[in-house]
Specification:
- By secondary structure, this protein is mainly beta.
- It has two domains: 78 residues, Immunoglobulin-like (Sandwich), CATH 2.60.40.1930; 167 residues, Distorted Sandwich (Glucose Permease (Domain IIA)), CATH 2.70.70.10.
- Strands 11, 14, 16, 17, 18, 20, 22 and 23 form an eight-stranded antiparallel β-sheet that branches. The protein has a five-stranded mixed β-sheet with strand order 2-9-8-4-5, with no helix packed on it.
- Strand 17 and strand 18 form a beta hairpin.
- The chain is globular and about 60 Å long.
Length: 257
Amino acid sequence: MSAAELQLVPAAAKQGQVVEVLLSGFNEPPPPVTFRDGNYRAFPLRKAGSSVYRALVCVPTNLDPGQYRIKCGEHEQALKVVSGGYPVQSIRLPKGKDTFDGSPGEKATVDAAKRTVTDEQLWQGKFVCPCRARVSAGFGLKRSVNGKLLKDYFHSGIDYAGFSGAPVYAAQDGRVLLSHNGWKLHGNTICLDHGQGVLSFYIHLSKILAKEGQAIKAGEKIGAVGSTGRANGPHLHFSIYVNNEACNPNQWFAKSF
């Protein structure tokens, strides 16, 4: 057996960026990859054959820049985390929508979805834009709401300022994990499971066109833009989570994992 090797791609990553941890020469399956206090499953890398495994690790957007270690068994590599340079955005919300209070069970249901890790990689290639509208808020923004800076907050996705009823499309192949109407915070929400810890969320919808358990193809219409939940006007909040960590969707639009 060849000597085990752990490789990071890239070896220096911005806050909110996903790092591929490539494992070769390990026993199959390899042990979990560890980063800070988290454990990450590695899966056979489809394009390289079963002898190479990969774990996807997202650098938390609020993690301080510096040097960190990513490990697998006795092997480890240094990861350099650099600032994402995310700015502050000021917004105003009407009374009653300026809190993070959710509906009963809302937070627990959404948090459970974010922790989902299924074995099969369903996505193929780059992710596609879920809404043909201008971007009104980018990933990673810090927020000042009604004149008050939110502590320990960053914008977990991208906002598309589409008109109410504008179509919303699946960003990649997947299966509907959540399809829920009427939440106080998220509003009408869809979550697609793309496999191996990768999920996409579509929030504040006016209409949902996908049912839980349904197989979805990239570019398929799954809903419509709205202002349900905690929203100050019609828009789609779109986010991608990797192993329970929000990551910058622009990386997935530009790179094929």
